[in-house]
Amino acid sequence: MKILRTVHELRTAMAQARQDGKTIGLVPTMGALHQGHLSLVKAARADNDCVVVSVFVNPTQFNNPADLKTYPRTEAADAELLENAGVDFAFIPSVEEVYPEPDTRVFDLGPVAEVMEGAMRPGHFNGVAQIVSKLFSWTMPDRAYFGCKDFQQIAVIRRMVELEGFNIEIVACPIVREPDGLALSSRNVRLTPEGRKVAPGIYQTLQKGTEYGMTHNVGETQKYVTELIDDIPGLRTEYFTIADTRTMQPLAADMSPAGAVGCVTVHCGDVRLIDNIVFPAAGK
Ligand code: PAF
Question: Which of 27, 33, 61 most suits a substitution to test ligand 1, by most atoms within 8 Å of the C-beta?
Answer without folding.
Answer: 61
